[in-house]
Amino acid sequence: MSFLSVDRVTRRFGPTLSLGEKIAARLGADVETRAVQAVNDVTLAVEKGRTLGLVGESGCGKSTLGRVIAGILAPSEGAVLLDGQPVMQGTNKVTTRVQTVFQDPFASLDPRMKVGEAVAEGPIAHGLTARAQAAEYVAGWFARVGLDPAWAERYPHQFSGGQRQRIAIARALAMQPDLLICDEPVASLDVSIQAQIINLFLDLRRDLGLTCVFISHDLSVVRHICDRMAVMYLGRIVEEGETGAVFDSPAHPYTRALLASVPELVLDGEELVRFAPIQGEVPSPYDPPAGCHYNPRCPFAQDRCRAEAPALRLLPNGRHAACHFAEELPAG
Amino acid sequence: MSVLDVRDLRTHFFTRAGVVKAVDGVSFTLEKGEILGLVGESGSGKTVTGFSLLGLVDPPGRIVEGSIRLNGKELVGMSDRDLRKRRGREISMVFQDPIATLNPMLTIGQQMRMALEAHGRVGPRAAVTRSEELLAKVGIPSPRARLRSYPHEFSGGMRQRVAIAIALLHSPSVIVADEPTTALDVSIQAQILHTMRDLARETGTALIWISHDLAVVSSLATRLAVMYAGRVVEEGPTAAILRDPRHPYTAGLIASLPAMAEPGTALTQIPGTTPSLLSLPPGCPFAPRCTHATEACTSEPVLERHGTRGWACFHPVGGVPA
Boundaries of each ABC transporter domain copy (chain B) (predicted)? Predict the structure, then answer.
């Protein structure tokens, strides 16, 4: 049994209709009644102490999946188990062992609460520290993430973006989680600050033995810190495997195109920057294409791809890919 | 003659807390059809530089010094009326967020026609023809039908293409593009980069591409200007700067990219944070974060030319013989 197992999780978002709207819809008025399948039958496993990268373009469902794993959103179907125990019961999160670091620490910190109080709030509520010792407890975590403990008395607006992200990390870690969900934690930071936060993350992960799910659209960051990665497209996982191997030989046509579309500096090569665009755009999640969702953009698509959705299956090289023709794709 | 010649540009903001020197001595030239990448982190002054070029700096900010010559004409001190005649026709801008710059209440066709009519009379048929031509050029499928669409009916990438088409309507000599792909997904970003590269080649329009992303800028720009704390600290051909950065800040920026390190290892980081522009130390603004700083760095280095390149540093790094 894996440490974290995501078992056939589906999450739908439908409109919540008022009585009036329901009647109007029944009478044939133009009321949105369709649901979006943000996460579609996803199964994943993460071993203890490992980091899984979750990548994909906007709207692919990576953040929704992250929130379901974190126990912020209840799955419509399926379950998330941590160490064999469910993260949620009904719509309630029943564990403190999963914590989340969000992209924008300005939005996730209460502007009118001193940052020290924000970090202390959870541990006090859950008995991880007594109120009397809270200041000391917080100071310890501040020092751990490279902040001056004296700053606990300050408010969020008094910090720079990088410092705020350190506070958000301290707040998550103060709950002493086993699993940390990081949703684009460095996306809004400048390059030089991004490197500082990534280094901090690498140190903490090693020292605390954390298991992580790292959600990012930045493939170079994922390559740098994740042991394994899963690529999502319109709610489905299309490929999963060991990070280095996925980068070296992507098995799914979408992974291939996604990796190729990122401008990458090649300082020792002939050309400086290498990239090639994917044709077309991500279709509307309200109305995903039949069969393999990627088929309209896929240069290798055949009739079968338009009719039958490929299952995520284990390839001989140990990779998981959801493509009917993964073994038959031309090289390169 | 250069299409654009910027000399010692200084744009300051006079706030209650003090004078913020957002742009403080920026110089560069731009040749016809050239793509210049303006790289820097938040607060480096790259966006304010772009806004200054179009005369779009609002109070409490103003250009306090310097010269901006567009096709030989001085823009600094020019009347609003004369500036307006040039904006859109000789120099235009593409912003980061097209949903904020397009009018949600008007169709794309109406907005393109207004942009055309801003610089003289255009018949309705001519307006449609020209708009359609440009939408086709930036890669929008069935352009004629799309003229009747509203901005919200386009995807993010397509909206940015529309914004680029509008910027190109009058075939300006210079387009300033401020982080135009930052809000887009990587696959869409790659498409836009390709389109822009082809357009610049085809139309001879010079491009200033403002971005924080070195890899993105380098995929387009033939030359780079690296900004820090309101100044250009290094400038030169893209390949030369990337392969052999001379300013310690540029070197640090390149070294801190995850792509430059072995996976899982610590990244090279630039210590400290970007300084507040309200209280810059005298001398080199990068000195407090620089491992090479010495006594000499308490006086300010100027950007010195060395062949096709230039840097503002007393202790340049690198210098591999080519």
Answer: 4-254
**Whether complex ipTM tops 0.85:** no
The answer to whether B39 and B224 have CB atoms below 8 angstroms apart is yes
CB–CB of B227/B266 below 8 Å? Answer: no
**Nearest residue to B30 via CA among B68, B61, B87:** B68
Q: How far apart are CA B140 and CA B156, in angstroms?
A: 12
Print burial letters for B31-67: b (CB count within 10 Å at least 16), e (below 16): eebbbbbbbbbebbbbbbbbbbbbbebeeebebeebe
E strand or H helix that includes residue A215: strand A211-215
* Interface residue ranges in chain A relative to chain B, Cβ cutoff 8 Å: 57-58, 160-163, 190-196, 198-199, 202, 217-221, 223-225, 243-244, 257-258, 261-265, 267, 272-273, 275-278, 281-282
Collapsing DSSP to helix, strand or coil, B178 comes out as strand
Q: Which residue blocks in chain B are alpha helix, DSSP H?
A: 46-53, 80-86, 98-101, 108-117, 124-137, 143-146, 156-168, 186-203, 214-218, 238-243, 248-255
Task: Supply the pLDDT for residue A332.
Answer: 62
Tell whether the model's pLDDT for residue B75 goes beyond 90: yes
**A4-14+35-254 belongs to which CATH class?**
alpha beta
Domain boundaries, chain B: 4-221
Domain B4-221's class? alpha beta
pLDDT confidence tier of residue B322, bands split at 50, 70 and 90: very low
Closest partner residue to B157 (CB to CB) among A220, A273, A281 is A281
Mutation target to probe the A interface, by most A beta carbons within 10 A, among B152, B187, B242, B253 is: B187
Residue A133 C-alpha, separation from nearest chain B C-alpha, in angstroms: 31
What are the chain A neighbours of B219 within 8 Å (beta carbons)?
A: 263, 272-273, 275
The string of pLDDT tens digits covering residues B101-151 is 899 999 999 999 999 999 988 999 999 999 999 999 888 888 999 999 999
The domain locations on chain A are 4-14+35-254
Chain A partners within 8 Å of B266 (Cβ)? 199, 202
B139 and chain A in contact, CB less than 8 A: no
Per-residue tokens: A89: 């019961």
* B23: β partners: B11
Distance from C-alpha of B50 to C-alpha of B39, rounded to nearest angstrom:
12
